[in-house]
Specification:
The complex is a heterodimer of chains A (75) and B (495). Chain A is an all-alpha fold and 75 residues long. Chain A has 3 helices and no strands. Chain B is α/β, with parallel strands linked by helices. Chain B has a 12-stranded mixed sheet with strand order 8-7-9-13-12-5-6-4-2-3-1-14. In chain B, strands 10-11 form a two-stranded antiparallel ribbon. Classes of the chains: A mainly alpha (75), B alpha/beta (495).
């Protein structure tokens, strides 16, 4: 599956996101976070490109828990 | 002379039952080993000499009076993110350096009710994810034991105790078990209550026993497993008597071997050991078939793991984010990065993991267990934390959880066992996994394998050197309680 073309966030974007949540984070730490994000970004883009159906029976977060409770069986 | 510290849980229980040894004697042997070795290994952060000795006397009395319980007199340790009433629980963090919980974790209550003796709290990475390289691998003290259950793995490998309890979110039981040459059982998600554990990621966190044999892991699991009203995610599923149900029978057992993902990034010595183990199982009657995991081609397991951990970590530590400076350096980096995780990505990760589960459903329709690598390389040195795959050196964080996080993501039970050594004498581990709530199948195959091999009985060099020592030597040097400071210094960066 080919990931959609993405732009990588910038320090300014991360700073704006932090400010929106009222977080005070130093420029140095933002840079380190961005570096970690960039290393991981390709894998994240691949995950983002996975298509999950919005129609029933759609997968919810709880679906995984129910599957485990049923001993690894869908039904 | 046999040093009781070198015996398994099963052997100790047999000796106690036959009145050939007492819990107090076993306790002294373990404390002696700690006194002599732990300065170099540094597996223990808090040692409870006086309290454990008091419990040892009570256990000794119970064996004499016929009141012994399932794990009566077995010394054990806890990763220091597991809460203990009246005993400091640091989470491996300077932030909780003096935190004393008011209640035991449920698994501690269960071990206590079964007569096990808490010997001490064991080193961990900060909140099971920041870096802490102060514990050494007993097989080579210059090497990393992995983590975050670094203390539990090192303590059991150094024969300081026969049982330790670790936790696993992406491989924190499995990888240290593989690197330190011991047995680590990550049970089904929900099999063991997590009430009273410092969380890292509620979706992926598991607790489980670390021992030196599969039979010992079965003994411990039987005591700790079962529904707990304090943990809403714990499963209400009957708990078998694992230890007495274990069988070394391999005839007709269906073993699945992956054609993708697990061997794609894997040191050749680990792959060779894994395939040799599979061959041995086949020689003794198991049928082998290959399986595919198509979802791993698209859903990016590493992205699922990190996205879930980032989101839940950020949520869990939201109230203390303004105290970022009080965390260790690695955790500061991790927690800062975690702030930039989107809700849509988090939900995609939570939903996409079911696609992986559906793959495994098909796999276990055709197989009783799967056998895969435990770690994907051998333990690296403290000052060069990289995954060495042949001549290639890969950043640890990018690849180390590759064979293990998938078990957490799918919620499968998986037991890691030793399956050989590389040319430098470093342990190589394999994992045996099965359907959710079928720990018995994993343990059966692990037990059968350990009846056919002796990798799990090999001794690390420092234990070999200690064998000629009087088991009680060093005991006099131990204070009633030993409390070490929390140290989060890292010699090399992981994140």
């Amino acid at each position: 599956m080919t990931p959609r073309r993405q732009t990588t966030p910038t320090i300014e974007i991360f700073e704006a996101l932090a400010a929106d949540r009222g977080l005070t984070i130093s420029r140095e730490r933002i840079e380190a976070a961005l570096e970690m994000h960039e290393k991981f970004r390709h894998e994240l883009d691949l995950l983002r490109s996975v298509e999950l159906s919005p129609l029933p029976p759609y997968i919810q977060p709880e679906t995984a828990l129910r599957w485990i409770e049923r001993g690894g069986r869908t039904s | 002379m046999t040093n009781l510290a070198d015996l398994s849980i099963h052997e100790l229980l047999t000796l106690f039952r036959n009145h050939e040894a007492t819990p107090l004697e076993a306790l002294d042997a373990c404390l002696g080993r700690i006194a002599r070795l732990d300065e170099r290994v540094n597996a223990v952060i808090t040692l409870l000499v006086e309290r454990a000795t008091e419990q040892g006397r009570e256990s000794t009395r119970r064996w004499r009076s016929g009141e012994a319980r399932a794990l009566e007199g077995i010394p054990y340790g806890l990763k220091d993110i597991i809460e203990t009433v009246g005993v400091r629980t640091t989470g491996g963090s300077p932030m909780y350096a003096d935190y004393v919980p008011a209640e035991d974790a449920t698994l501690v209550k269960r071990l206590d009710a079964a007569g096990a003796i808490l010997l001490g709290k064991l080193q961990t990475f900060e909140f099971a994810s920041g870096s802490n390289a102060t514990t050494s691998n007993p097989w080579d003290l210059n090497r990393w034991p992995a983590g975050s259950s670094s203390g539990p793995a090192a303590a059991v490998a150094a024969h300081e105790m026969p049982l330790a309890i670790g936790t696993d979110t992406g491989g924190s039981i499995a990888i240290p078990a593989a690197f330190c040459g011991i047995v680590g059982l990550k049970p089904t998600y929900g099999r063991i209550s997590r009430a009273g554990l410092f969380p890292l990621s509620w979706t992926l966190d598991h607790a489980g026993p670390m021992t030196r044999s599969a039979l010992d892991a079965a003994h411990a699991l039987g005591v700790m497993a079962g529904h707990d009203a304090r943990d809403p995610t714990s499963g209400n599923v009957p708990v078998p008597d694992y230890a007495s149900s274990l069988s070394a029978h391999l005839e007709g057992i269906r073993v699945g071997v992956p054609t993708e993902w697990f061997f794609d990034v894997c040191a050749s010595e680990v792959e060779t050991a894994t395939r040799a183990a599979i061959d041995l199982l086949a020689e003794h009657g198991a049928t082998i078939s290959e399986f595919e995991l198509p979802s791993t081609r698209t859903v990016q397991l590493h992205a699922i793991e990190l996205t879930i951990v980032y989101a839940e970590l950020a949520s869990l530590h939201e109230a203390t984010f303004d105290r970022l400076d009080e965390y260790g350096q690695e955790f500061q980096r991790l927690l800062t990065r975690a702030q930039f995780t989107s809700a849509v990505d988090y939900l995609k990760a939570l939903r996409a993991r079911h696609l992986v589960q559906l793959d495994f459903e098909k796999v276990f329709d055709q197989n009783d267990v799967i056998v895969v690598p435990g770690g994907m390389c051998v333990a690296p040195t403290h000052d060069h934390l990289v995954a060495k795959i042949g001549e290639d050196e890969r950043p640890l964080i990018d690849v180390i959880s590759r064979p293990t996080a998938v078990m957490d993501i799918a919620g499968l039970p998986a037991v890691t066992i030793p399956a050989g050594f590389d040319d430098d004498g470093l342990p190589l581990g394999i994992q045996i996994a099965s359907r959710p709530y079928d720990e018995l199948s994993c343990l059966n195959i692990a037990h059968a394998y350990q009846q056919l091999t002796e990798f799990h009985t090999e001794l690390p060099p420092i234990v070999e050197e200690d064998l000629d020592t009087n088991p009680s030597d060093g005991l006099d040097e131990l204070p009633p309680t030993l409390t070490k400071p929390v140290v989060t210094v890292t010699r090399d960066r992981i994140w």
